[in-house]
Amino acid sequence: MSSSAFRIQKDLREIVTTHFAISDSGPPILAVPVDDKLNHLRALIVGPKGTPYAHGFFLFDLTVPEAYPNEPPTVKILTNDNGRCRFNPNLYADGKVCLSILGTWRGESTETWRASYSLRYVLQCIQCTVMNDQPFYNEPGFAKEQLEAGLAALELARERDRAAVNRQTESESMKAVSDPPPDDGSSIAFDSEPPEHSASELITVKTADASAAPATTSPPPPVSAASASDSPVPAETVMLSLLTQQPKSVVEKLRWNRSDIDTHAAAYAAKVSHETIRVAVCDVLEILLGLPPSPSQAAAPPTPAATQPSPYEAAMAAATPACDSQPLSTVPSVAAKAPAPVYACGTYHHSLAAYFSEDIKQYFLQHFHDYVATCELWQRKSPCSSVPFTIAPFEGAGNNCAGTFNWVELRRRLFAIRDALREEESMIRRSGEELTARGDVAAQELLASACDAKGAVDWASALGDLTTSVSVSGGPVNARLNAFAWQLTFIPSSGLYEGGAYSADVTFVPPGGVRHNWTASSAADQHSMPVHLARTMPASSSSSSFYPPPPRVAFKQPLFHPHVNVDGVPCLSAVSSGPSGLEKGATMDAMLRRYAPCEIARQLATLFVMKPKAQPPELIINEEAGKLCFSPDNDHQRSFKRRARDMAEASTM
User: pLDDT, tens digit, for every residue of 535-564?
Assistant: First the structure.
């Protein structure tokens, strides 16, 4: 085995260990080899909560060179709506990922690739630094520090403009007094001082008379590519040149003052949030579930009127030294793309999400109400549908995020996906009955891992001291008929939930996940899947050796807990691994037992006795309970405890 392959295996083990064993590691980061090739990986990054990318499922393609780790991997983002959506200034619509440690963007000496960096570190950099709460400022020249310097320089320029206008006005007034022209009735009298104009407005200010003299202030010479190649031009110079040499439409689009910059940043975050739910959530789940595309997905993308880069991109390309192998002017245009297939939402790369299918579905069920709350929040802010996105000044044709807002439609799609997942759980149970009836080895192993010959479970032996605080009972609903359908009952004997009785339905997913009945007989049928796509759907991929499918779990009684949502779905990631050998550095076999029946029972029982965790925020899937529980206000904390006890009492009725 080569040193590169050995290092890749070590990096994959780090990803797996962190995902299974560390409960406070943040939103999931997963990676698996493609076709068992260690130098070609598929990765899933879940967007961080509190950002426009919150809970989105972003897929990446990693190609690892032979010289790794001395050379960085090549990373491409696959979640781009078939090349039509640029999710970030650093994540291009054509898949390019601009990151200094990858060598795709210039950086300081401390920001270049090092052999000590791992694959998880690369993915974590994208998750933490690129997918931030204000992606607008990721664009070079738009960083907050540069903008502050540019705004200060701009204010000085405006002061100079105003002083020049005042001097010119005073000079003309003195000349008129000393040598008044003959009165022909065409003079204009000012009752007050002439109005002030900004540097940008001076370019386009004209008098009512079309023959009047042009403005006396002339724009500075444009920044040339030749001069830019010698030395970098400061960001404030670039911004000033934009204000004084670009067409009026561009100047009106972005006036350089703080309020307008914040407005553009907020508008950019809003459309990224919309497209995250549309492309990185709804499209992904609809493909995995075999749902037909929505009308907005099936429609062909609009053809832009022009294929040139935006004025800002052109100015930045001219004002900064080349650092990319592909100049902005050669970014593929939307107009040059072939017509989108029936599944226009990016079917090909979403099919590859099947490597992480069950993890994606479980995460969606846990955070479903967060998606809905986001749609409802933005809908209240902007109740009108079909409002077009604001195109950011750094976005050009073919490399932008264009479209219209439709939060109502996204909310409808989210509920349809949840309903489909509930129906799918019934299908999983029916599949479990079939596997159990024919004596499948997976059914036998599942029962043997926890049950005796009669199908009963000795929970006192399996859970040890935990049973002194929580009484656990139950097991397979009917071991002879279905080894995959379980029901567990928890009765806490101490703590906040003392006296309650909670039943949880647990449906274990058969190996290989759920296979929907795709039909490829007619690619034109919206309910069918194209042949090439059906071949990319892994029935039982190599990912199963890394990520066993998590079970579907839901409490039947209301449980007021920060780590249990209002549908009764618990966040198992919030529960520490306990004494089952899942600590960091544990063997792979121990981590694969994460979803064994006894381990699931341990995690659910721990929810009743553990102190809820405030960090990372992804663990809080009941916002109301989380706000009360972690509030510094004592009254709020008492309210949380009172409501938790009230629901515990109601659970026994």
Answer: 233 333 444 445 778 899 999 999 999 999
Q: Which of 366, 387, 419 is the last residue of a domain?
A: 419
Token pair belonging to 318: 């001219």
Q: Are residues 135 and 19 located together in one domain of the fold?
A: yes
Q: Are 53 and 272 in contact (CB under 8 A)?
A: yes
* Residue 99 in domain: yes
| pLDDT one-digit tens code per residue, 382-418 | 777 788 998 888 888 888 899 999 999 999 999 999 9
Tokens representing residue 485 in the block? 């359908």
Q: E-assigned strands of 493-542?
A: 502-507
Helix (H, G, I), strand (E, B) or coil at 185: coil
The residue-averaged pLDDT of 499-515 equals: 84
Which residues span the domain enclosing 453?
Answer: 440-511+548-650
Does residue 356 share a domain with residue 457? no
Measured from the Cβ of residue 382, the count of other Cβ atoms closer than 10 Å reads: 11
For residue 274 the two structure tokens come to 């919309």
- How many distinct structural domains can be found in the chain? 2
Phi-psi region of 401 (alpha: psi -120 to 50; beta: other; left: phi over 0): beta
- Are 474 and 488 a contacting pair, CB within 8 Å? yes
Dihedral angle at the C-alpha atoms of 328, 333, 338, 342, nearest 10 degrees?
100
> Is 463 found in the same domain as 572?
yes
Tell me, yes or no, whether 75 and 117 share the same domain: yes
What is the separation, in whole angstroms, between the first and last Cα of the chain?
A: 62
Residues 406 and 484 both lie in one domain: no
Long-range pairs, 575-582, Cβ under 8 A, ≥24: 575/23, 575/603, 575/606, 575/607, 575/610, 576/23, 576/606, 576/610, 577/20, 577/21, 577/23, 578/466, 578/602, 578/603, 578/606, 579/464, 582/20, 582/21
Question: CA-CA distances (angstroms) from residue 60 to 76, 123, 138, 271?
Answer: 6, 9, 19, 21
What does DSSP assign to residue 44?
E
Verify that 638 and 560 share a domain, yes or no. yes
**Residue 485 sits in a domain of what CATH number?**
3.10.110.10
Does a structural domain hold residue 106? yes
pTM (2 d.p.): 0.75
Count of Cβ atoms closer than 10 Å to residue 35 Cβ: 8
Assess whether 476 and 329 both reside in one domain: no
Helices 441-448, 407-437: crossing angle, 10 deg rounding? 90
Is residue 489 located within the same domain as residue 609? yes
189 domain residue, yes or no: no
Q: What is the DSSP string of 227-289?
A: HHHHSPPPHHHHHHHHHHHS-HHHHHH--SSHHHHHHHHHHHHHHHHHHHHIIIIIIHHHHHH
Q: Is residue 214 part of a domain?
A: no
Strands 470-478 and 404-405: unpaired
